[in-house]
């Protein structure tokens, strides 16, 4: 999800998050003030020991100085507490950051919360850069998602909670979730978290493991989860495989819905597995016994059968001789006379008798003939041709003709 989309999605809960955060007391409104003569400056880190606990603040004797540190209750922790005693006790050693220095007294306002938050933001930024996983505790479920404690208050939009829609967000209250950092804006105290990527990653590992365990040729049970014009997607655990429409039945399938329906349990044979692309090719028809093999075992070349014309093509007709078993009557085997197109002689769904003239078990092909059941018509007798042959003979004994033989009297009137 784009950062802008995430910001838009959570805009309606920002006010709630701000109101739920601990209130700052008057003492910490001006956090940039620093006394000129003080040895401390805003942003310094100090250590000390708690020597006084009041309802709204605690006092700390700052190490190596005569200064007292005052920690308002709102600066003890980012959690909502009723009294400092809920999380702290006398003589506890603390580390805090200076947020204000008094001008006329040896007092500094310090904050454990801000120091913890700064460290938390630094850690979150490192986790984001490394795309690392961290844990957070759900402190509140709101309409748009979950608020988590990850050192600071973080938020998971509902759309980044899982790869599936989750209606009841209250079920996560108090749970510790693994998340990744999606976006950080420290100035606005905004931390967007993402659990969806972790869920997707875990499921991807499960799919890869399952894909690697699948054996080509194995027969397993699956459930039809989706149909398309070209086949059916069948769930076989954490992955879906595709059974092409041609692999749904040995009978011709015009529509996928004619062969299977969503929710149906089916036995499938694994034809191919591609773990890298997470693709599985399945076959429903090959998970059962082939009707062709049964047909081959029960029939021989020369058998005469009754079949039904199922399809007419330019080169012949496909005839169903048993459920799921079709053979081809080539156009040259339809009749003894010349046939221009099979449709001139045959019609779909017409019942006819055919003779087996060829069985190809390797390619599962059956060759049929109609004309083999009919006697060939007698050939018409051809009339004898009368021949008037004139024979010309030459009785001369000369082998070569003379000029006179060739030109005769053509030269007799010439005046030479």
Strand content: 25-35%
SSE order in H/E notation? Answer: HHEEEEEHEEEEEHEEEHEEHEEEEEH
Number of strands: 20
Assign the CATH superfamily of the domain at 295-369.
Answer: Nucleic acid-binding proteins
Mean pLDDT: 83
Oligomer classification: single chain
Distance between the termini: 122 Å
Model regions low in confidence, pLDDT < 50 over at least 5 residues: 1-33, 386-408
Instruction: Based on Cα principal axes, name the global outline.
Output: rod-shaped
SS field, number of helical segments: 7
Top CATH class of the domain at 295-369: Mainly Beta
**Biggest β-sheet: strands ordered side by side in the sheet:** 1-2-3-5-4
CATH architectural type of the domain at 295-369: Beta Barrel
Question: Which percent range fits the helix content?
Answer: 10-25%
The radius of gyration is 48 Å
CATH topology of the domain at 295-369: OB fold (Dihydrolipoamide Acetyltransferase, E2P)
Which structural class do you get from the secondary structure elements?
alpha+beta
Described by strand count, sense and barrel closure, the largest sheet is:
5 strands, mixed, barrel
Domain S1 motif: 43-113, 131-196, 217-285, 302-371
Pfam families: S1
Keywords: Ribonucleoprotein, Ribosomal protein
GO molecular function: mRNA binding; structural constituent of ribosome
Describe this structure in words.
- With 416 residues, the protein is of the alpha+beta class.
- Among the domains are: 44-115, Nucleic acid-binding proteins (OB fold (Dihydrolipoamide Acetyltransferase, E2P), Beta Barrel); 131-199, OB fold (Dihydrolipoamide Acetyltransferase, E2P), CATH 2.40.50.140; 214-287, Nucleic acid-binding proteins (OB fold (Dihydrolipoamide Acetyltransferase, E2P), Beta Barrel); 295-369, OB fold (Dihydrolipoamide Acetyltransferase, E2P) (Beta Barrel).
- The chain is built from 7 helices and 20 strands.
- The protein has a 5-stranded mixed barrel. A 5-stranded antiparallel beta sheet has the order 8-7-6-9-10. The protein has a 5-stranded mixed β-barrel with strand order 11-12-13-15-14.
- The chain is rod-shaped, with a radius of gyration of 48 Å.
- The N and C termini lie far apart (122 Å).
- 24% of the residues are buried.
């Amino acid at each position: 999800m784009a950062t802008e989309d995430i910001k838009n999605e959570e805009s309606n809960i920002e006010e709630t998050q701000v109101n739920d955060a601990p209130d700052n007391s008057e003492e910490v409104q001006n956090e940039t003030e620093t006394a000129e003569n003080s040895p401390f400056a805003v942003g310094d880190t100090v250590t000390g020991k708690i020597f006084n606990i009041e309802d709204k603040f605690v006092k700390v004797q700052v190490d190596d100085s005569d200064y007292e540190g005052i920690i308002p209750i709102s600066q003890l922790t980012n959690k909502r507490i009723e009294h400092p005693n809920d999380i702290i006790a006398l003589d506890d050693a603390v580390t805090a950051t200076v947020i204000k220095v008094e001008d006329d007294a040896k007092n500094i306002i310090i904050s454990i919360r801000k120091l913890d938050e700064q460290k938390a933001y630094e850690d979150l930024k490192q986790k984001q850069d490394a795309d690392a996983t961290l844990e957070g505790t759900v402190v509140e479920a709101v309409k748009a998602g979950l608020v988590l404690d990850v050192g600071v208050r973080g938020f998971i939009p509902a759309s980044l909670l899982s790869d599936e829609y989750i209606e009841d967000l209250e079920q996560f209250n108090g749970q510790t979730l693994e998340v990744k950092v999606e976006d950080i804006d420290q100035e606005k105290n905004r931390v967007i978290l993402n659990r969806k990527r972790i869920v997707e990653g875990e499921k991807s590992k499960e799919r890869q493991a399952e894909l690697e365990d699948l054996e080509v040729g194995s027969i397993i049970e699956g459930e039809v989860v989706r149909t398309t014009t070209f086949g059916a997607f069948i769930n076989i655990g954490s992955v879906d495989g595709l059974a092409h429409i041609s692999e749904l039945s040995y009978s011709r399938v015009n529509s996928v819905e004619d062969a299977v329906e969503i929710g149906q349990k089916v036995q499938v044979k694994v034809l191919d597995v591609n773990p890298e692309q997470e693709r599985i090719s399945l076959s429903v028809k090959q998970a059962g016994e082939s009707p062709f093999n049964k047909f081959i075992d029960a029939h021989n070349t020369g058998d005469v059968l009754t079949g039904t014309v199922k399809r007419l093509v330019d080169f012949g007709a496909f005839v169903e001789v048993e459920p799921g078993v079709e053979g081809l009557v080539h156009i040259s085997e339809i009749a003894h006379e010349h046939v221009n197109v099979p449709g001139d002689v045959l019609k779909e769904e017409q019942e006819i008798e055919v003779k087996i003239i060829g069985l190809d078990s390797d390619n599962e092909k059956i060759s049929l003939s109609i004309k083999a059941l009919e006697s060939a018509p007698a050939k018409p007798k051809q009339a004898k041709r009368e021949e008037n042959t004139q024979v010309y003979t030459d009785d001369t004994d000369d082998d070569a003709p003379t000029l006179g033989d060739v030109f005769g009297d053509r030269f007799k009137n010439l005046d030479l």
